[in-house]
Specification:
By secondary structure, the protein is an alpha+beta fold. The chain has two domains: 6-84 and 225-242, Phosphorylase Kinase, domain 1; 85-206, D-amino Acid Aminotransferase, Chain A, domain 1. Helix content is 28%, strand content 32%. It contains six helices and 14 strands. The protein has helices at residues 46-63, 99-105, 134-139, 145-167, 216-219, 225-236; strands spanning 6-9, 13-17, 23-28, 31-34, 39-42, 70-73, 78-82, 85-86, 89-96, 112-122, 131-132, 171-185, 188-194, 202-206. The strands form three sheets. Strands 8, 9, 10, 11, 12, 13 and 14 form a seven-stranded antiparallel sheet that branches. Helix 1 (46-63) packs parallel to helix 6. The model is unreliable at 244-253 (pLDDT under 50).
């Protein structure tokens, strides 16, 4: 596909104008960031893995009736997606205490929660994506009460799907975040899962060993991030373990 007009560039992805109205081409970069981009690096092959894994998860959600923005994968780094008005919130589902929740509430990391907990953060890097309540969301007009109910229902359905999928390959879904967008079909609005679902946006721990297979490997300097993401892809049967090595040309002496 010919390169098109750039619409937006974020920390991990670029959006280009799509081939048809109402579509974008989403390109997955190799950039890795943490702590609101205070820590950053380029991890070869990361974009390829996240593209393929996000495709896998979005297709699975579409199959069980959870609407997403995903249309099709174009190549190893790009996918065609449906355009949507993104609600300016990160929707976080937590099954175990980890990261900011563990620190905020003084819980031991890995503590099982009594039930999945849904949290919302306002998407603003300059503010550090602060945690907000439903009262804030409705008062500032970011979403209506009906939107809130629908977002929670969508997030919990994603959690059910992802938890079962990961458990089947020996991985614990500790928590994850998604973004949700609005689309219109005539006068009817509905909410869909947007952005991506990948080890960048999930905490994934090996059930037996507790080994981290997500972006915490980069955040906490626990090893090679590509190796961790490749292990997730390998267990799910998404792509060959050596596929990312094809992204770099071989120097012939």
């Amino acid at each position: 596909m010919a390169r098109r007009k750039k619409i937006y560039e974020g920390k991990a992805k670029i959006l280009y104008e799509g081939p048809e109205p109402g579509t974008f081409v989403q390109y997955f970069k190799d950039d890795a960031t943490a702590y609101n981009a205070e820590k950053r690096d380029v991890i070869e092959g990361k974009g390829v893995l996240n593209n393929r894994l996000s495709e896998f998860f979005m297709l699975g959600l579409n199959h069980i009736g959870v609407p997403t923005h995903f249309i099709k994968r174009i190549n190893m780094r790009e996918q065609l997606i449906r355009s949507a008005e993104i609600i300016p919130l990160e929707v976080i589902v937590r099954n175990y205490a980890a990261g900011s929740m563990a620190k905020r509430l003084g819980l031991e990391e890995g503590t099982a929660l009594p039930r999945p907990i849904v949290e919302f953060c306002y998407k603003d890097d300059a503010l550090g994506d602060p945690l907000v309540s439903e009262e804030h969301i409705i008062a500032f007009g970011w979403a209506s009460q009906q939107d809130m109910d629908d977002m929670i229902a969508l997030a919990l359905r994603v959690n059910d799907f992802m938890s079962g999928l990961m458990y089947g390959v020996g991985i614990k879904l500790v928590d994850f975040k998604i973004e949700i967008g609005r689309v219109w079909e005539g006068d009817y609005q509905r909410l869909i899962v947007a952005d991506e679902i990948s080890p960048d946006s999930c905490r994934l721990w090996d059930i037996k060993t507790g080994q981290k297979l997500d972006k915490d490997v980069f955040r906490r300097d626990l090893g090679n991030l590509t190796d961790a993401y490749t292990e997730v892809a390998r267990r799910l049967g998404v792509m060959p373990a050596n596929a990312t090595q094809m992204t770099k040309p071989t120097l012939i002496n």
